[in-house]
Structures are given as structure tokens and as C-alpha cells.
From TrEMBL:
Gene3D superfamilies: Chitobiase/beta-hexosaminidase domain 2-like, Glycosidases, N-acetyl-b-d-glucoasminidase. The keyword DNA-binding does not apply. The lineage of its organism: Bacteria, Pseudomonadati, Bacteroidota, Cytophagia, Cytophagales. InterPro entries: Hex-like_dom2, NAGLU, NAGLU_C, NAGLU_N, NAGLU_tim-barrel. PANTHER family: ALPHA-N-ACETYLGLUCOSAMINIDASE (PTHR12872:SF1). Residues 27-106 form the Alpha-N-acetylglucosaminidase N-terminal domain. Residues 121-452 form the Alpha-N-acetylglucosaminidase tim-barrel domain. Residues 461-723 form the Alpha-N-acetylglucosaminidase C-terminal domain. Keywords: Hydrolase, Signal. This is Alpha-N-acetylglucosaminidase. Residues 1-26 form the signal peptide. Pfam families: NAGLU, NAGLU_C, NAGLU_N. It comes from the Bacteria.
Length: 733
């Protein structure tokens, strides 16, 4: 009887594994059909076991087919990407794709075998869900999940639809829709609402949004899991509605403020018995709606300091947060962003960090070193005091448009950490940018480490990157990337990429609080790259990736040129030279117009798709108007007319340049001209008060912008090169 029972168990386990295997393979085949439908029939897929608990893939040619084997759907997708990159010289990025496959697929002479040293390959930052993903539909999400799989990502943050879970929890607790109207933010502000930084801004949130995004999250998770990914879902950290005090007058609440122009939010003290009860309710409801993979994201103090730095207090708080997860899911693992240890290092010293982390068992917590390429916090925390942790590149803040990155650090950092005797329990590698769809080279480079365990030869890797991206490798394009490596991507001096003074609120200064213009290179040193790109149009100009880079480099040169041009009209103003002020201010306006025309050649750099996709989410005119206002506000004021965060998420986008930045500068120049004509000093304070109201009017207005590019990339780039190269060159001499 016992033997028969054991055999039944074995057969059952085999059946379960077989079923999972089949589902995995079906998802992998479907991915291949989406990526390369014209050649999908030449690929076969198969499963192989992990090695030492980590993923592996193999590629071989057999009987006229390319056989992709992997330990998960992600591994199989990574095998496909490796084959496309290394043998077909193709490339898939957000900003330019080359899938010009050879008529006959290359045959592998020997089997390729790749394993990874990184158990977890993490993806996304709370902020990414708004700075880039606010208006995504299933079609766009499907494309991104494919991109994740191709690049080896197996642990994505998955917080779409979180608001619906909370809606259900609070409704069951007796809260009315009116109670919650001032709680849920508008769709462009969820990231900061989820992190407890703000309530209600950009709302009230329609119930239709919540229901639609509950359904969207169901699709997202099903696809991610079918490919073998482990989604990280949210958990409760104490943020509750302001109406909570009416429903539970004895609850222990603390008002806190993000200090960025928003009203107080309320945090339920973890000592209050309701804390564990609500945390349990939330995870149970979330599991009921979406299932679970037992990993939960929770950040207790995102840019909000705790009330005390007493280690005992922090230890007890951490214990209670984890226990709240454990009550609902005994297998719960707490995934924590390490951003607070970087952003508020004055508070988070060794005793405080250690107390917060030591309170949770090592195998029940996973730390994200959120900006390792900027500052490796693991090095000053004894690798997070024994906790498993992940090396991440943050790179982009606010979705700002600039050529920037620490390419040498990204090429060397992950493998150096992996080989360090002090690395502790390094478990993974990841991408935690605030926004995507920019600087694709940095993201391709970071994820190349997934399947490598030795240092990369950066120059050799760049040659392959160019070949895959442009369809050919030429001496000129090689030189372009050597220049970029030494200038825009050198990673020195500044934390994140510089913006153009054009995107700042009009000023006589050379910078503003959120429009930082300091470069990590001499702007004249970028000019040869521009020249070489224009000269390479004949060889590479039909390739999508080349066209994106041509526009991006041209944009960066002209965006940099705005600063010396600004200095000319500032000097004219100070010298009370009206004629030269008019001349140079008009050239400045013309530069904005030319930049707008340049960026109109690529959808990557256009306002129209952002606005249109926001409006498309609405089910009626009122919702469409609300979502458009959210979309306009996030990338300009960020809050109300007096927001201290204005321009934090500025974008160099066609449509935004001509419709927002240009008229704002024109109003400024008109005021300066009037002051010069009267022999008076420009009243900058009065202008700022006035322009804030104009900006808010723009945010709350509605207008359609082009959603299709003018599709004249090479011609426009050549035209602007002829117009500006000599001017720009001379100003730096």
C-alpha cells in the first residue's frame, strides 16, 4: 500500500512538472511567433533543468532547425535573443529595432551553453509605472513583457491594479466611495500614492479605471508567470485614507508630509493591532484576485523619515511589517528598495540600517541596492548585513531626455561585485530606472551580464552593438561610439543626465532647481560625433536604430547649444543692448522651433502619443479630460501652480517644445524687451507669479497633438546640421 502510494505521488509530481513544462513551452513558442513571425517555424524549444538552482539555456542546430533549450520561458527567450544578437546581428530595443534576418538562418557548428550567476534578474521602479507606463494598454504591456524575457528578466515589480485591491479591502471595511474619493490619486501619480507620499492628487479616480486595470493586471501576471517570471506584488506599509480616523477614532495614526507641496498623508502605527489586520486583509484579497509568488514589495519610509532614530523602535517596526505579511502568507519574502539608505544617509547610519534589517530572517528579505552604479550602498553596509541583495542600475530620473550614463561602471560593476570577497549574499542584477525608452545602450549592456561571469571587453561589445543596431560596422560609427563613451557616457562629475536650459522655467540663470545644465564633458567634444553621424547617413541611414541615434545626438548638440546662446541674450540684457537682445532671443526661439521639428521625426520624442494614450483610457469625455490633465501635469508642473517639483519630469518632446516651452520663453522675452525699452529692470518675481498661472492654464487645457512622425529623419537632421554646425562649433572656440 505504502509503495503504491509513493509511486502515485511520484507520478503526480511528474504530471505536474510535465504540465508546467508544456505551458512554459507553449508560452515560449508564442513569444517567438510575436518576435519573428516570418521565421518562427525554423525554431524549436525544449526544457532543460537548472544548474545549481539557477537558470541555463542552450542553442544548437539540428535537422535544419534552431533548437532553443532553457530552464524557463525566460531562459528560452534569452536563448532566442542571444541567437539574434550573436549570429543574425539583430537587435530589439525600445528605441530602434533591427530584425533584418538573413534569408537562411545561420547554422551553429557547436552547441552554445550559457548559465547565469544571478538567481534573480529584477526589473522596474515604482516611478517607472508613471513616468513611462501611466497610459499603457495590453498591447504595449505585451511588448514589454517580451522585452523582459528576451533580456533575461525573471523578477518584475507588478503593481498595476493595486488601487482596485485597496478599493475592495476598504469597501469591505465599511468605507464609502466618498471616503475614498480623496484617497486614490489620479493615474499619473500612483507611484507616489502607493509609497505614501500623497493622497488624492490628480483624482478623483474613476471606478472604471480601477476595474479596467484590475483586468489588465490579470493579463500581465498571467503572461509573466507563463514565461517563468516571479512577479513582485505590493504589501501594506501603513498608508491609510484620511477618513480612517472617522471610522477608527482610537487608531494610532501619524500625519506625515513629503514636503513637496502636497497635503499630509496618514500612516497607521505598526503597533496598532489594526496594522497587522489590514496588512493581512490586503494580501488575502490580492491573492484572491491575482494569486501570489510570495515576494512582496514594501517600503516603509520612502523619502519620509521615521519619527525616531532609536534602533529598538526601528527593529520592532520592521518585525511588525514582516509579521503582517507572514500572517497572510507564511512563505512571504519582503522585497525592500534600498533607496532610503542612499537618499537619507544622515538618518540611516549603521545602527539604524542594521536594526531595520536584522529584525527579519535573512531568507525572508531581499534588498534592492537601487542605484549601485551611482553609489554601491552594499559596500558600506557589509553587503546589507547578510541579507540577499540585488545589484541595480537606476540611471534615469524623471524620464528626462538626455544622452547620459556610466558606461564603464555598468560594464565592470556587476562582475566586480560578483567576484568580490565582500559581496555577501549577492543574488541578482536588475534595472530600477525611474523611466525607460531612452539610452538603450545602457540597458542592453547591463542585461548582457545576466549570462556572463567574466568582465566584458567594452570596446568589443560596443562593436557588436553597433553592428546589430546599424546593420553594419564602419570606422565612422566606431569612432562615434568611442566619442560617446568618453563624453556623454563617461559617468563622471554628475549624478544624472543634464537637461537643456530650454526646458527650465525662464530665467537669467544658467540652471534651475530641476533643470540642471552641468555636463560631464566639454560640449565641443560631442561635435565630432554629430559630424560623423551625418556623414554615415549614406551607409546606415535606412536603419531604425541608426535613425534614433542620429536624432538623439543631433538633439543633444542643439540642446547643449541653448546655454551659450542664452548667455548671449543675458549679456545683451545686462548691457542694456536692446538690438542684440532681440537678435539673440529670436535665435533662441528659432532654436526651440528647430528642435521641435527635429524631434517630430521620431515618435520616441513626441508629446502626441503620450496625450492620446492618456485620453484613450477614458470611457467618457470627463475621464478623457482628467487623464489628459494628469498627463500634462506630470511632465510640466508635477503638482499645482506652486509646485516645487515643476520641471522634475521635463521632456524634450516635439509638441511640448512648441506648445509649452516656446510660448513660455516668448512671454519672458516680451517682458524683458518692455523693460529694456523703458530703461527698467525686469521684475522676475512678478513674471514668475504670472507664468505659474499660465502654466496651470496649459495643464488644464485640452488639445490634440500629432501622433505620427513626419518621417523625414535623415533630411531634417542634415538640414539642421548645415544650419547649425558652424555656429555651434564657433561658440565653443
Amino acid at each position: 500500500m505504502s509503495k503504491l502510494f509513493n509511486q502515485s505521488i511520484v507520478l503526480l509530481l511528474l504530471a505536474v512538472n510535465f504540465a508546467y513544462s508544456q505551458a512554459d513551452l507553449a508560452a515560449s513558442k508564442a513569444l517567438i511567433k510575436r518576435i519573428i513571425p516570418q521565421k518562427a517555424q525554423y525554431f524549436e524549444v525544449a526544457n532543460i533543468p537548472q544548474e545549481n538552482g539557477k537558470d541555463v539555456f542552450e542553442i544548437e542546430s539540428k535537422s535544419g532547425k534552431i533548437i532553443l533549450k532553457g530552464s524557463s520561458g525566460v531562459s528560452i527567450a534569452s536563448a532566442l535573443n542571444h541567437y539574434l544578437n550573436e549570429y543574425c546581428h539583430c537587435q530589439i530595443t525600445w528605441n530602434g529595432t533591427n530584425l533584418q534576418l538573413p534569408k537562411t538562418l545561420p547554422v551553429l557548428k557547436t552547441k552554445v551553453h550559457k548559465n547565469t550567476s544571478f538567481e534573480y534578474r529584477y526589473y522596474l521602479n515604482y516611478c517607472t509605472f508613471n513616468y513611462s507606463m501611466s497610459w499603457w494598454d495590453w498591447k504595449r504591456w505585451e511588448k514589454e513583457i517580451d522585452w523582459m524575457a528576451l533580456h533575461g528578466i525573471n523578477m518584475p515589480l507588478a503593481i498595476t491594479g493595486e488601487e482596485y485591491t485597496w478599493y475592495e479591502v476598504y469597501k469591505e471595511m465599511g468605507f464609502s466611495d466618498n471616503d475614498l474619493a480623496s484617497f486614490f490619486s489620479g493615474p499619473a501619480y500612483f507611484s507616489w500614492f502607493w509609497m505614501g507620499n500623497l493622497d488624492g492628487w490628480g483624482g478623483p479616480l474613476p471606478l472604471s479605471w480601477m476595474k479596467n486595470h484590475k483586468n489588465l493586471q490579470t493579463k500581465i501576471l498571467a503572461r509573466q508567470r507563463s514565461l517563468g517570471m516571479t512577479p513582485v506584488l505590493p504589501a501594506f506599509t501603513g498608508h491609510v485614507p484620511s477618513a480612517f480616523k472617522e471610522h477608527f477614532p482610537k487608531a494610532k495614526l501619524k500625519a506625515t508630509n513629503w514636503t513637496n507641496g502636497f497635503a499630509d498623508t496618514y500612516i497607521l502605527d505598526s503597533e496598532d493591532p489594526l496594522f497587522a489586520e489590514i496588512g493581512k486583509k490586503f494580501l488575502q484579497k490580492q491573492t484572491q484576485l491575482f494569486g501570489t509568488n510570495h515576494f512582496y514589495s514594501a517600503d516603509t519610509f520612502n523619502e519620509n523619515e521615521p519619527p525616531t532614530d532609536d534602533p529598538a523602535f526601528l527593529s520592532k517596526l520592521s518585525t511588525r511589517v514582516y509579521e503582517g505579511m507572514k500572517q497572510a502568507d507564511p512563505k512571504a519574502v519582503w522585497v525592500m528598495q534600498g533607496w532610503l539608505f542612499y537618499s537619507d544617509r544622515k538618518f540611516w547610519k549603521e545602527p539604524q540600517i542594521k536594526a531595520l534589517l536584522d529584525a527579519v530572517p535573512n531568507d525572508k528579505m531581499l534588498l534592492l541596492d537601487l542605484a549601485t552604479e551611482i553609489e554601491p550602498v552594499w559596500k558600506r553596509t557589509q553587503a546589507y548585513y547578510g541579507k540577499p541583495w540585488i545589484w541595480n542600475m537606476l540611471h534615469n530620473f524623471g524620464g528626462n531626455v538626455n544622452l547620459f550614463g556610466r558606461i564603464e561602471g555598468v560594464a565592470n560593476g556587476p562582475i566586480q561585485a560578483l567576484n568580490s570577497p565582500n559581496k555577501g549574499d549577492l543574488k541578482g542584477i536588475g534595472l530600477t530606472m525611474e523611466a525607460i525608452e531612452q539610452n538603450p545602450v545602457l540597458y542592453e549592456l547591463t542585461m548582457r551580464h545576466v549570462w556572463e561571469n567574466t568582465p566584458l571587453d567594452l570596446d568589443k561589445w560596443l562593436d557588436t552593438y553597433i553592428l546589430n543596431r546599424y546593420g553594419k560596422l564602419t570606422p565612422k560609427t566606431q569612432e562615434v561610439w568611442q566619442i560617446l563613451k568618453k563624453t556623454a557616457y563617461n559617468g563622471k562629475d554628475i549624478r544624472d543626465g543634464a537637461e537643456s536650459i530650454i526646458t527650465g522655467r525662464p530665467t537669467f540663470d544658467s540652471t534651475t532647481i530641476w533643470t540642471r545644465t552641468r555636463l560631464n564633458y566639454l560640449p565641443k567634444d560631442l561635435l565630432p560625433a554629430w559630424k560623423l553621424m551625418v556623414e554615415s547617413i549614406e551607409d546606415c541611414g535606412k536603419n531604425d536604430g541608426f535613425q534614433y541615434d542620429l536624432i538623439d545626438i543631433s538633439r543633444q548638440v542643439l540642446a547643449n547649444y541653448a546655454l551659450p546662446l542664452q548667455k548671449k541674450w543675458v549679456t545683451a540684457y545686462r548691457q542694456k543692448d536692446l538690438a542684440n537682445f532681440k537678435k539673440y532671443s529670436q535665435e533662441y526661439i528659432e532654436l526651440i522651433e528647430d528642435l521641435d521639428q527635429l524631434l517630430a521625426t521620431r515618435k520616441d520624442f513626441m508629446l502626441g502619443p503620450w496625450i492620446a494614450s492618456a485620453r484613450d483610457q477614458g470611457t467618457n469625455p470627463a475621464e478623457k479630460a482628467l487623464y489628459e490633465q494628469n498627463a500634462r501635469d506630470l511632465i510640466t508642473l508635477w503638482g499645482d501652480a506652486n509646485s516645487p517639483l515643476h520641471e522634475y519630469a521635463n521632456r524634450q518632446w516635439s509638441g511640448l517644445l512648441n506648445d509649452f516651452y516656446k510660448p513660455r520663453w516668448q512671454q519672458f522675452f516680451n517682458k524683458v524687451t518692455l523693460a529694456l525699452e523703458k530703461g527698467e529692470k525686469m521684475d522676475t518675481e512678478a513674471f514668475e507669479k504670472e507664468i505659474r498661472q499660465w502654466e496651470w492654464k496649459w495643464v488644464t487645457s485640452q488639445k490634440n497633438f500629432p501622433t505620427q512622425s513626419i518621417n523625414q529623419v535623415n533630411a531634417v537632421a542634415q538640414s539642421l546640421y548645415k544650419k547649425y554646425y558652424t555656429k555651434v562649433y564657433s561658440v565653443y572656440e
